[in-house]
Design brief:
By secondary structure, this protein is an alpha/beta fold. Helix content is 30%, strand content 22%. The protein has four domains: 260 residues, TIM Barrel; 126 residues, Galactose-binding domain-like (Jelly Rolls, Sandwich), CATH 2.60.120; 239 residues, Glycosidases (TIM Barrel, Alpha-Beta Barrel), CATH 3.20.20.80; 89 residues, Golgi alpha-mannosidase II (Immunoglobulin-like), CATH 2.60.40.1180.
Length: 853
Amino acid sequence: MYVVWCLFILCLQAFASQAADRPVTKVVYGLPAVHASDAEAIDRNLRLAGVDAVFVPADRDTIGFYRKKGYRVYLAFNAFGGKNGWKRHPDGVPVTADGVSMDRKAGLRGFGGVCPTHEAYRRERLLELSRWVSAFGGPDGIDGVFLDFIRYPGYWESPDPELIDSCYCDRCMRRFAEEAGVAVPALAPEERAGWIKAHGRKAWADWKVGVILSFIREARTLLEGNASGRKLDLGVFTVPYTAYEKQAALSTLLGQDVLQMASLVDVVSPMLYPGLMGKPAGWVGRMVSYWQEMLAAGTCALWPILQATDGSAEMFSRSLDEVQAAGGGTVSVYSFSGFDSAKWQALAAFKPLPDLIVNPQMAPSEAHFPDPFAWGKRPFGEDTNGLFVSRQKPFAALGLRPAIHFPIGWETTTAACIPGETYRFSALFLRSRFENGVYPELRLWGRDMLLNTHLLQGRFQPIAFDIRCPESGQEDEPILRWTNRHPSETFWMAKPSIRRVVPSGVEERPVSEPALLADGSFPIGVYGAEADDFPELKRIGVDAVFVSSGGSGKVDMVSRALAAGLQPIVVLPEDPVRMTDALEGLNQAHGGRQPAFYAADEPEIHGTSPRRLEEVYREIRERFPRSVVTMAVVRPQAVAEFRYAADLYLVDPYPVPSMPMIWLSDAIDEAAGAVGIGRVGAVVQAFGGPEHAAWGWPRMPSRAEMKGLTYLALVHGARAIFYYSWKEAARTEQGRADLAAVIEQLARLRPWFIRKPTTPAPLVRMTSAYGTDPSGRPAVHAACWVKDGKTMLVAVNTLGNHVAAEIFLPHIADRSSARFREMEAGGTFGVSHGRLEVTFKPHEVVVLVGSDG
């Protein structure tokens, strides 16, 4: 027994000594003080469940007990919650939007709250926090403090929340005017909220956020000044709303900007309580995915806190499953008092999805210092001078810069994947500048990938994609290899991860498909039009225009477009407050009409979070359920990442003059593979010139090239055609005339393109010497449409030289002869058993119509 007990003590000591080095995976909130509980029994439950961190009362004995047991120990600190402060500071009672202080409003739910600008109350709270740091921050003390109720008042813990609009007290109005630089007139208390909403809601939200951030900064300073020298973590509990939800209530009403908070703290802990809020378990996964992506490029950890109190074991277990499915690595639980045996078992079963990358933190070992353990170099010959390791903040990263024109890189062996299963690779990438055509490369499980979505400069860009484990497993090449072939650029990679994709209960598509994508609609639109252009655009056949956002001018542009008979596509601002203001203004002005919306422009190359755009999509469709949400995407492989963030995806590779025309059609085909051809449109290049030469567009496309790109997109099934841009093309009379001519013909053929192309598609056999496109396929691409007993054939020469082809139309193969008429030139073509011969000029489009009778 003595030997066993000694071994147990040694194990506990080892457990305690390693606690600070292990990642936190399971946290339990609300443990009772040791003098008021059976602490040993609690410890047994915690250990069986795999808990490694706890929240305890501010009690020295309790802190010491759990620290000696090997747990990380945290305290929760109430910043502005409760009503006790009202007694000491009556002028600290928040004033609501109707000019009445909260203590005079009957029936308010929630936990009160003190105005965050009350200096005396703030000093009291910071003094209390300073006492905690002094008393409990020593070598055997706490590991950190989490700020609770770090916000303005409001009761969110309900399916029917009561989010109070405050604080409009005299002190806040004075400080807002001084600190935000807003000239606020002298107003009665009940008039202040209305004036701010009309004249400065964004400035007001920013100012309220700043008030909360200033308290966090002061708290951070106190923790960093810990006399013992120990680093104490600072965390925040946040309200579980996205930045857009409930008219951007998180910032405008509650004063929380989680991204800015994350830059000041070590841990963000959104309070995900589906039972209290009347949400399904899938909502937990949705929120974890959202906040993981939003925080991906920073150093702040995400500890979602789940509800064990007042909820079923089944809901708790499903919530844990959702955290795992979302790739969450840590889960916190509120609260200890809500646990029963079933919930302890569910917590014990929770395990983060394993990372197949060995040493993703890139930590060195004695044998490999300073290089990361398990990561090997891939130089050309013996040149390793361009392989770097950085351990500076914010996190460890590997760098690549070859000294000569040969590849150089890092690689590591991956753990075994499950054959046929889908995995998700993610990492952060950094480049100091952008050079067109210069990108890093990855090779994973024998598959090569060019990371051509990596365009952000000067900051880390998150990049992620799904990849399937080979059916034969990965015995042939269980390698992740990262390569740079470009001596002109240094690339850095940090925080790589490969985790299995598991099913989630998230309800990704809450509404039905919009009317624009049904039969009977085929949009033809332009970017870059002004209101004065609208009559001309309507005359030539345009029916959709992008209108810029920005205050009342945006609403006016929408009105002008509608008055001209055009479909406005509203370009939304990124800022959550401005975006929700824009939606509200449009809803009030045009609630009976359904403008379309442009949610993002090429988000994949700008590091935009797909989950953020999914939340934008939800906000739009809640107000405009029949509207269309669209975005432009230049890298078609990224459409899959954004498949739940839009209805219509406009692929916009611009090939003229240095790339083949099929760059556009290939992009359409790849995007359609992710979301279906019914949700893919095209943006045709209608710009170019000296100002665009550095990006590869030194001239404007010719009329033949614009027309060729237009009909090539249609042949490949595009369900909308847009041109970028009217403003650029119209700079010259020739450009204006060329684009107008292409649009006018397209508009005349619109009744055909409302329908989808026939299947099977025409077969093309090239009969000329030059007969293949750059991918080795027939240079002529063709499709047919059938309407009112007639067939229209569209054939496009994708090359810049003369070609000839035989085209076979399977759906009329049983007819011995037929005559097709050329739509523009008026010539006729004989068709025998579905076959006809056609010659093409460079980039020529041939449109033929014949009767099926």
